[in-house]
Amino acid sequence: MTQSPEPAPRRRMLKGVRLVFNNGHSVVNGVLRDISDTGARVSVENGLALPDEVKLVLDEGGSHQCLVARRELKELGLRFL
What class does CATH assign to 11-80? Predict the structure, then answer.
């Protein structure tokens, strides 16, 4: 029986981010709640209205292409590609 890999350590954050999709034509503002080497948790106004793949753009610079791994009304769990 194989064990699932250990989750990557998360660093708590409270920083502004943008979720970009629709070939860069659509942007939703959010708040980065935590981040690890493999993903992030982001608060948004309406997580149900976003597509399954987004680009996470950090306000201080840097970005990650992401898949939505967990979706709630006000929160997304993102997995970095």
Answer: mainly beta
